[in-house]
Amino acid sequence: MKNLIEKESQKANEILQENTIIAEALKNSDIWILVTDENGNILYVNEAVERISGYKKEELIGKNPRIFKSGLNPPEFYKEMWDTILSGRVFNAITPNRKKDGEIFHVDLKIIPVRLTGNVLRFVAVAKDVTEKIRLSERVQRLHNYDALTGLLNMNGFTVNVSQKIKETPGLGLFILIDIYNMSSINKAYGINIGDQLLIKFAERIKKSFENTDSLARISADTFGVYLILESSDEIYKAYSKLYEMKNSVLKIDDKAVSVNINAALSVFPKDGVSFNTLYERTDIALQKAKKAGAGVILFFDSEIEREAEKLWKVFELLKKATEEKLFIFYYQPYFYTESLRFAGAEALVRIIDRNGKLYTPDFFIDQLENSHYLSAFENWAIGEVIEKIKKWRINISINISGNTFSNPIILSLLSAIPSDVRDKLTIEITERTFIKDPYYTMQILREIKSMDSPPKIAIDDFGTGYSSMIYLRDLPVDIIKIDRTFIKDIVKDKKSLAIVQTIIDLTRRLEKKTLAEGVETEEQLEILKSAGCDLVQGFLFSKPVPEDKLLSFIA
Ligand code: C2E
Ligand code: CA
Ligand code: CA
């Protein structure tokens, strides 16, 4: 093979030498000339090729031109090239290549397929080095689209970038403007030079806060723009909390600590606008309002989202504080045997009590907790706490485990680490919704839990609200079905609710599992549940969730 190529190469040279004038011209030309056989093996290169690429002729003959490949072209580029030249047409493109030393150069390339006598096919690549021209236009582009001080996009670049994003990702987006509140007084107090450095530092701060986007801009002296593509509306509040963190920050410049405050405004794509211009205009209206309202004010174009965001932000602050300062605490709600009304066990229900003694119930924070990075720390604490109480009090305690934790195999190691004489007094409550989100996986985890020695009991919480099939009940390795409060509430006056409750109880009994009625509030409900054959009852009729000392006096 190698010999053949050498021979071919020699032949190509001979043909060219026959025409001495042309040969000399080609050799000394500034134009890159490279000839390959039909398989792409290089047969001839002129001196320009050596000069531009940095390879010696000997290093190129017999090789494939992919030696110059920059890696910057998509695979389609090469497909199109081969399709074109193999069908006998000339291929033309401006394309980046790589020199021997790794540096990129750009060429304006033509590949010409030439058929010689005897049906021999050759490809002649003729190219001009256009690197300088490309660099220059890139530089012009940069000046046109980027802010020279911070390296972020400028207004022009931001417009192009965001418009593109809107077109490509029509889902959900967040448009943010951030204005440095006290820029002119900073300039006055410290001078323009420090002011410039502050802008650079602030730009870095924005880059770090919003690292998942390249839509970051300085759009005027002290106003920055950010555009985020969102996967869910939750991320609106995450972005909001990042802006909150930017309020009253102190940036170190040289040895000076300069405090900066901001105003910010947000609008949501596509709800508040579907083009760059409307989003910008509307966010700017909100920004002007925020600036008038004073330092640190952050506003949404849509005030409804704003109220929602503010509430959620408060919840996240509370969760952060509760985690850092260990403010989580369990209240316990007892449950009883329906027949005898003897104490059967207690459900641990979380609360947060802040330093001022204010108590927060789960409806205020549980959804956010279950979807935050505070969850695993919380659930580690929760399981530890409940284990300690079982050891101390020797009673059955139920704990609520969120769907997110349950879908993580860590739950298995958490549970298997518990001493077995404690574990069999523990009940794990998972909601029906958790189960139906991924029945097969949940079933597997439940089976593994049940294969431990002295396994914990499993209860399906809020049963009846998740529309799961009764068929599942047959195979579920669970011990207790907790009938949801909404059905119990209506059993006295609504025959249909009673029928549903009766059916759940009968079916559960036949499957040799137990039922627990949640939210029993009246004697009448209790009587009905008793005659329906419900095993366990829990509700305000007996006790609300109470702090542990109250629970202990209850048991006594
Ligand atoms: P859940 O597991 O269904 O807990 C029962 C909820 O119903 C408790 O609300 C309880 O106070 C309330 N309740 C009990 N009996 C009655 C009654 O007779 N009438 C009425 N109207 N309400 C009654 P709580 O403590 O606010 O908890 C709410 C939810 O928060 C719980 O619902 C549970 O899903 C979740 N949760 C509570 N603690 C934890 C926890 O430690 N971890 C996790 N992941 N979730 C928890
Ligand atoms: Ca529960
Ligand atoms: Ca429940």
Structure description:
By secondary structure, the chain is an alpha/beta fold. The protein folds into three domains: 20-134, PAS domain (Beta-Lactamase, 2-Layer Sandwich); 146-319, Reverse transcriptase/Diguanylate cyclase domain (Alpha-Beta Plaits), CATH 3.30.70; 325-555, Alpha-Beta Barrel (TIM Barrel). It has an eight-stranded mixed beta barrel with strand order 13-14-16-17-18-19-20-21. A five-stranded antiparallel beta sheet has the order 2-1-5-4-3, with helices on both faces. A five-stranded mixed beta sheet has the order 7-8-6-11-12, with helices on both faces. The longest helix has 22 residues, at 303-324. It starts with a helix and ends with a helix. Bound molecules: ligand C2E and calcium ion (2 copies). One calcium ion binds next to loops.
| CATH top level class name of the largest domain | Alpha Beta
- Counting helices, strands and paired strands, the structural category is alpha/beta
Give the strand line-up of the largest sheet: 13-14-16-17-18-19-20-21
From the alpha carbons, calculate the radius of gyration and give it in angstroms.
Answer: 36 Å
Question: What's the number of extended β-strand segments?
Answer: 21
Arithmetic mean of pLDDT: 91
What fraction of the residues are assigned to beta strands by DSSP? 15-25%
Through-space gap between termini? 96 Å
Low-confidence stretches: none
The CATH architecture category of the largest domain equals: Alpha-Beta Barrel
DSSP helix fraction: 40-55%
**How many structural domains does the protein architecture include?**
3
Remind me, CATH topology of the largest domain? TIM Barrel
The CATH homologous superfamily of the largest domain is named EAL domain
Q: Globular, elongated, flat, extended or rod-shaped: what is the shape? A: elongated
> Largest sheet at a glance?
8 strands, mixed, barrel
Q: Helix count?
A: 24
What hetero molecules are in the model? ligand C2E, calcium ion
